Every structure is written in structure tokens, then in C-alpha cells.
């Protein structure tokens, strides 16, 4: 389990994350939601050690992540930032192979190759494993990166806006895959999401941030209701139930 | 065509070009002359032709690798020792050591120029981190301006010290003066290239960005610094023995990347041989065009290189952006 304790971060005079404390439930999808500039990505970056917190600590199974060795940490937690603009020419298989880097340092043994094969298979990329990343569509590319994270074989998978720039079909595809990772492989997934309805339909828990502070933290059905959402977004968000999914219909809302 | 096949073709090209390179020059040497150990031809062969060939191969391979590492670490296809101030910084270091530390030993001069190349490149990389507008073409333009500022300081110092002409001859990339006893420093590039190959995977991961590198547990800063040291070593040894070879570090890695991608473990061997072949061709042209005299190789490299570079710019901006 990941525990976040009193985490704060400022850039210059601006406080981006302020005294956030929460626990991330294992084997579940937790979505970070909130308005622009709420500090969601910064929080995720601190949890994954990409950024150092000013104060507070992150505990991974009771041990301070800062004190963990970097390759030991890389075997437990994977983070994928918005990677669509990456301009490196690697084949899909090469990229996925780098997911084994914490284990093999680039010299893949038979077991590593097996993990790579499985990760490709899982994301339906086996046929295009020898294609270069720049020959893929946005959705395929995103799948290749997630496949790399699967090959990394970590318990925790952190994703920063994985649906960015994806169309509806590919967004649904990615979210279904994340769901499978939790339900079938027992992973813990934490995502920053902009689209509240994807958060509602696919996540087990929702963490809502606003101006760097934690405003809500609970099971999805407790957060996806008009009263709670007003606190987060300062607007009236009607919620309708459709086929068992709670859908926010905010497009035509009047305060 | 298979990739192994391509590599073998490059290797064969280097071998054939090497043979041609060995047997052209002001004095006509026939292979049969070499049977006589005492002959003038054999002496020329051993003192001049062979060192020259080795120097070309090492310089070509080295500059290719230096460019490849810089492009990977800066994540910009148009960054190279020529377009990031590395060569200009090394040059400034040599001029300062020649002017102000006249009693300095050769080794001291080498270390001095190495330190300048390293610091100069490091400053450019720091600059790169601070600028927000990372357009593919904008970044090397900044590098060229930065290099020109360093170059202006060099020129000013050389002018004040009344050694402008010396400096010009010294840095003119040319293999004319490469004879046995004057090029051995280039062998330092060999371990540098081997280390580059050992670190290939790390450079590739670092080339995907700091966040990406940290995610797989790679210490990004350390890899970046090792890369810069390799680049500085190669650039310094080449500039001190041969002079400035422009464009090669820019073009060769890009040509390889076009068909092979950016996985350094794969591209390093191809870059080595293509760099050597490219410089061999340029040197052979330089020696044949006004035979029995020759023009400096950097002139030929600049003409051919800038032409290829322009084609790359026009056709390849889309590719570099991908």
C-alpha cells in the first residue's frame, strides 16, 4: 500500500500541493481528478519520485520511498508521464524491452524475453512489434508505452493523463486494459484523469484535489454526486445513472 | 535488405576505401614496392600513408559516435559537436594554453583543451534545459551562436597574440600533417568508443528523457555526465591531431537513424563504419581533385556535408520532429 503523509510542494512562491495525506488502496484503480492547476500531476510525480517533495513523505509498504534504491523502486512502481510527443525512433519491441531495464540493465535473458512477449501479447501488439513508434497511431503508441510498463512488472502503475490526445474508441480501449490489469493481474493503478466520466465509470476510488489541497477521497459512488462535485469544480454537475454507470451531464449546466 | 547485410556492406566499403586511400598520393606506390622493406616507398607507406589511414578511420568513427551521443542525450537530431560549441570550446582551450601557458607540456595542453571541451558542452546542455522553446532547428541555432561567441573570443585572443595565421593552419581539418608520431593521441578515441558501446543502452534510455530514465531506475545525471566526457575526449583528440571536422557528427548518425532507428546498441556499429567511410571518401576526393597536391579535408567535408545537411533540413524536418 502507498501512504502519502503531509506532502507539500511549492514552485517559487506558488504552492502547488499543500499538506496532502491519503492512502492508496491496493489492487484498485484510483483516479486523481480536479480542476486545472489542482496539483494532480505534481502529486503523482512526487509519489513516483520524479519530483522531490518539500515536506512530507511517501511510504511504500511502510518504507520511505526516498530511501529506496532506484532500481529496487523501479521494480515496484512504474510511472508513465504524457509520452506521446516522445520523438525517439525505437521499435515497439525495443521500447517494451526497456521495461525490463531495472532487471536486466539492457541485457535481456530468456526470462526477460518472456515478459516482453507476454506484455506485447497482452496489449495486442505482437503483430506490430517490429514497427517503429513513429509509424503508429496515437492509440497504438499509448498501448506500446503501457505494454512497456507491464513488462516492467511492478505492483503499482501510475499514469499521468493516459487518455490525452486519444479519441473515444482508444480511450475506452485503454481504460478497459487498465481495468483488466487490476482485475486479472492484481495491479494497483493510479491515474490522473481530466474526463470525469471515465473516472466515474472505471475507477474504484476517486481522489479530488483543488488548489493543491485534498478535498475528497473515497469510493467512486461517494464522490460522483452533485454536492461533492460542486465542492471540487465550483459548478452544478447533474449526475444521471445510465446502464449502472454514474454519468455527469455538465455540458449545459447553469451554476 | 537485412541489417547484418548493411553492416557488412559498410565494413566492406571501409576496407575497399582504405586500400584506395593507401595507394594514392604524390608518390606512386605499388603493392609490389612494399615487398622491399628498405625501399623509399615502404618508408612512405609506414610513416605517412598508414598513419593517415588510421587517423581518418579513428577521426571519422569518433566524430560519428560523439554526434550520436549528443543527439541522443539532447534529444535533438541536429545537435552535434559542431552545433553545440564543443569544438569551439576545445579550440579556445588550446589557444589559451598556447598563449598563456607557453611552458605547458603537450599532455598539459591536451588536458586543458579537454577541460574546455567538457565545460563548454556542459554549459550548452545546461542552456538547453533552461530554454523552453525546444524547436528542432532553434536548438542547434542557439548552439551555433554559442559556438560563434566562443570562436570570437578565440579569434580575438589569437589576434592580440599575433598568432592568427598559426591558429588557422592548426585547426584546419587536414590529414596532410598526419605522420607517424603525430597522430597517436587519436588512439584515445578507441577506449572512448568502446565505453560508448558499453553504455549504449543507458544512453538510449536517457535519450527518452529524465522522467523516463528515472522510471526504470537509471541515474540520469550520471549517464549524462559520462556521455559528455566521452564527447569531450573524442572531440579533443580529433581537434588536436587533425583539426576541425565539421558536419560529420551531424550527418552520419542521422543517416544511420533513418534506417535503423535510435537504439544505440544497434546504431553504434553502423555509425562507426559509416563515419569512417564518409571521411575516407572525403579524404580521397581531397587528394585527387588537385593531384598531386591536395585540399584540406575539412573543405571537402564541409561542401559534401552541408549539401547533405540541407537535404536533411528540407526533407527531414518532419522526420526530425517525429
UniProtKB/TrEMBL annotation, chain A:
The UniProt record lists the keyword NAD: no
Alphabetic keyword roster: ATP-binding, Cell membrane, Ion transport, Iron, Iron transport, Membrane, Nucleotide-binding, Transport
Protein name: ATP-binding cassette domain-containing protein
InterPro entries to which the protein is assigned, alphabetical: AAA+_ATPase, ABC_transporter-like_ATP-bd, ABC_transporter-like_CS, P-loop_NTPase, Siderophore_ABC-ATPase
CDD domains: ABC_Iron-Siderophores_B12_Hemin
Primary location recorded for the protein, binned into one broad class: membrane
GO molecular function: ATP binding; ATP hydrolysis activity
Record GO biological process: iron ion transport
Subcellular compartments: Cell membrane
UniProt membrane topology term: Peripheral membrane protein
Chain ranges of the ABC transporter domain: 2-236
Pfam families: ABC_tran (PF00005)
Gene3D superfamilies in UniProt: P-loop containing nucleotide triphosphate hydrolases (3.40.50.300)
UniProt GO cellular component terms: plasma membrane
Keyword Nucleotide-binding: yes
Amino acid at each position: 500500500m502507498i501512504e502519502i503523509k503531509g506532502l507539500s510542494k511549492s514552485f517559487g512562491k506558488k504552492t502547488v500541493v499543500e499538506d496532502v495525506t491519503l492512502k492508496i488502496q491496493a489492487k484498485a484503480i484510483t483516479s486523481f481528478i480536479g480542476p486545472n492547476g489542482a496539483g494532480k500531476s505534481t502529486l503523482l510525480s512526487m509519489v513516483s519520485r520524479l519530483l522531490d517533495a518539500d515536506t512530507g513523505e511517501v511510504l511504500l509498504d511502510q518504507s520511505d520511498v526516498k530511501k529506496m534504491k532506484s532500481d529496487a523502486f523501479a521494480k515496484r512502481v512504474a510511472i508513465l508521464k504524457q509520452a506521446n510527443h516522445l520523438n525517439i525512433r525505437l521499435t515497439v519491441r525495443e521500447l517494451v524491452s526497456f521495461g525490463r531495464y531495472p532487471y536486466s540493465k539492457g541485457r535481456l535473458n530468456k526470462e526477460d524475453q518472456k515478459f516482453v512477449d507476454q506484455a506485447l501479447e497482452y496489449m495486442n501488439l505482437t503483430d506490430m512489434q517490429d514497427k517503429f513508434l513513429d509509424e503508429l497511431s496515437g492509440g497504438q503508441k499509448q498501448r506500446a508505452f503501457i505494454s512497456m510498463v507491464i513488462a516492467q512488472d511492478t505492483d503499482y502503475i501510475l499514469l499521468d493523463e493516459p487518455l490525452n490526445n486519444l479519441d473515444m474508441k482508444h480511450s475506452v480501449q485503454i481504460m478497459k486494459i487498465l481495468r483488466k490489469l487490476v482485475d486479472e493481474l492484481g495491479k494497483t493503478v493510479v491515474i490522473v484523469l481530466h474526463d470525469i466520466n471515465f473516472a466515474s465509470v472505471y475507477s474504484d476510488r476517486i481522489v479530488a484535489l483543488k488548489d493543491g489541497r485534498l478535498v475528497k477521497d473515497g469510493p467512486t459512488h461517494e464522490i460522483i454526486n452533485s454536492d461533492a462535485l460542486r465542492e471540487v469544480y465550483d459548478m452544478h454537475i447533474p449526475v444521471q445513472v445510465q446502464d449502472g454507470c454514474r454519468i455527469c451531464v455538465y455540458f449545459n449546466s447553469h451554476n | 535488405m537485412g541489417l547484418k547485410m548493411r553492416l557488412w556492406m559498410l565494413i566492406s566499403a571501409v576496407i575497399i576505401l582504405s586500400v584506395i586511400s593507401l595507394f594514392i598520393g604524390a608518390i606512386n606506390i605499388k603493392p609490389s614496392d612494399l615487398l622491399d622493406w628498405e625501399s623509399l616507398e615502404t618508408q612512405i607507406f609506414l610513416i605517412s600513408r598508414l598513419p593517415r589511414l588510421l587517423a581518418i578511420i579513428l577521426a571519422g568513427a569518433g566524430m560519428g559516435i560523439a554526434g550520436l551521443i549528443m543527439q541522443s542525450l539532447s534529444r535533438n537530431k541536429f545537435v552535434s559537436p559542431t552545433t553545440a560549441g564543443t569544438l569551439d570550446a576545445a579550440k579556445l582551450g588550446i589557444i589559451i594554453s598556447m598563449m598563456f601557458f607557453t611552458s605547458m607540456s603537450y599532455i598539459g595542453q591536451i588536458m586543458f583543451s579537454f577541460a574546455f571541451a567538457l565545460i563548454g558542452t556542459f554549459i550548452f546542455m545546461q542552456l538547453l534545459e533552461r530554454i523552453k522553446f525546444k524547436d528542432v532547428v532553434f536548438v542547434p541555432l542557439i548552439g551555433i551562436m554559442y559556438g560563434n561567441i566562443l570562436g570570437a573570443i578565440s579569434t580575438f585572443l589569437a589576434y592580440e597574440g599575433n598568432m592568427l595565421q598559426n591558429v588557422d593552419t592548426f585547426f584546419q581539418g587536414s590529414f596532410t600533417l598526419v605522420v607517424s608520431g603525430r597522430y597517436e593521441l587519436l588512439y584515445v578515441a578507441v577506449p572512448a568508443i568502446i565505453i560508448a558501446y558499453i553504455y549504449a543502452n543507458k544512453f538510449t534510455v536517457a535519450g527518452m528523457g529524465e522522467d523516463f530514465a528515472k522510471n526504470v531506475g537509471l541515474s540520469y545525471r550520471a549517464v549524462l555526465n559520462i556521455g559528455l566526457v566521452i564527447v569531450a575526449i573524442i572531440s579533443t583528440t580529433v581537434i588536436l591531431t587533425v583539426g576541425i571536422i565539421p558536419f560529420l557528427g551531424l550527418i552520419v548518425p542521422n543517416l544511420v537513424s533513418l534506417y535503423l532507428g535510435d537504439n544505440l546498441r544497434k546504431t553504434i556499429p553502423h555509425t562507426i563504419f559509416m563515419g569512417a567511410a564518409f571521411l575516407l571518401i572525403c579524404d580521397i576526393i581531397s587528394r585527387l581533385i588537385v593531384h598531386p597536391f591536395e585540399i584540406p579535408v575539412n573543405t571537402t567535408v564541409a561542401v559534401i556535408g552541408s549539401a547533405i545537411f540541407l537535404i536533411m533540413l528540407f526533407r527531414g524536418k518532419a522526420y526530425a520532429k517525429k
